[in-house]
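Hey, can you fold this one?
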Amino acid sequence: MLKNFRNSMLVLCIAAYLVVFWTSPAMAGLMGSRLSDESGLSRTRQMEIHKIQRALENQIVTDKLQAYGLKPFEIKDKISQMNDHQIHLLAQASDSVLAGGDGIGFIVGVLLIVFLVIVILRLLNKEIIVR
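Sure. Predicted structure:
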């Protein structure tokens, strides 16, 4: 009786050990990168300032800033007074400005696909009926 109880407890303890310790979730995450020297930091700052200046060359951004009453020389002064964190945030925001479009490219793409479908159907002697 004691032998059966001991074997049962041993199996139960091993099962509990496997469930608790071997199936626990692993904690992982990304670490922020850090440059090792000051020249790398200044180079990164210059790259981000260049990215911001490219975004400021966009006509929509320029018009919007002028609507707020800012002149181009005031903008350059404000950028030079920003710290590294503010420059980084502004550079990230300028990425979305540079990547965005006005939707004309999407409309042209859809119309081109519709045109190609019509041409292919005509070449196959299919009839297009719109009701």
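The two ends are 85 Å apart (CA to CA). Let me know if you want another pass with a different chain boundary.
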